[in-house]
From TrEMBL:
InterPro entries: Flavoprotein-like_sf (IPR029039), FMN_Rdtase-like_dom (IPR005025), NAD(P)H-dep_reductase (IPR050712)
The organism of origin for this protein: Streptomyces yanii
Name the UniProt record assigns to this protein: NADPH-dependent FMN reductase
Keywords from the named record: Oxidoreductase
The protein's Enzyme Commission number: 1.-.-.-
Matching SUPFAM superfamilies: Flavoproteins
Pfam families cross-referenced by the UniProt entry: FMN_red
Domain NADPH-dependent FMN reductase-like positions: 7-155
Entry GO MF terms: oxidoreductase activity
Length: 198
């Protein structure tokens, strides 16, 4: 990885049987590859052991010594090494899936002073309720959420053969990726210059 390339982790937030999430994540990863500013890693939460029951101490207090399951190692090291994140999320009951909340709650420092963009999909609202909740949660973890994002309403009729029918979608994706790269660079420099006072 050269110094102008940022390690981007694309998180597939849904783990449901028959889910659409991997289709969206795969298109997002493709757009990030085309952008050229990122070294892209897709992390699928369905492949990670994410228990709902947390250890007694919080990850904020336990730091590096937080006792995570062995099956979570791939997720933790991906989050740890990331310069930027894209969370791909559906909308479940006007919020985001429990799988995503559990994955977030098992971590703390891994999110600190790093940018997060969102790509959502769902019914009429395109997952926007899910994103609003995620913005709130990730701010608590000292992450920096990006204003622009991609929302795909009615994905069941608006996507075909693994891509959105909207011909402008790749352009929108580029705008988000440009903003994410800008923040990834700014925040990586800042983290290197001084520890974040969390
Ligand atoms: C439990 C559940 C609740 C849902 N609630 C909403 C909702 O509030 N708004 C919405 O637009 N779609 C909702 N949907 C529809 C999902 O957006 C749609 O099923 C989508 O495919 C879920 O993403 P996934 O296939 O990656 O799991 C819900 C689906 C499930 C399974």
């Amino acid at each position: 990885m050269d110094n102008d390339t940022y390690k981007l982790v694309v998180i597939v937030g849904s783990v449901r049987e028959g889910r659409f999430g991997p289709v969206v994540a795969s298109w997002v990863a493709e757009q990030a590859g085309i952008h050229g500013g990122f070294d892209v890693d897709v992390v699928d939460l369905a492949e990670i052991d994410i228990p709902l029951s947390l250890p007694a101490a919080s990850p904020k207090i336990a730091g590096d010594g937080y006792p995570r399951p062995v099956g979570m190692e791939a997720l933790t090291s991906a989050l740890e090494g990331a310069d930027a994140f894209i969370i791909v999320t559906p909308e479940y009951n006007h919020s985001y899936p429990a799988s995503l909340k559990a994955a977030i709650d098992w971590h703390f420092t891994q999110w600190t002073a790093k940018p997060v963009a969102f790509v959502s999909y769902g019914g009429a609202a395109g997952g926007r309720h899910a994103v609003l909740h995620l913005e709130n949660v990730l701010t608590e973890l000292h992450a920096v959420t990006i204003r622009d994002g991609l929302a795909f309403p009615k994905y069941f009729t608006e996507w075909q053969d693994g891509r959105p029918l909207d011909s402008e979608a790749p352009g929108y994706a580029k705008t988000v990726l440009d903003q994410l790269a800008w923040w990834a660079g700014a925040l990586r420099s800042a983290r290197e210059a001084a520890p974040y006072p969390a």
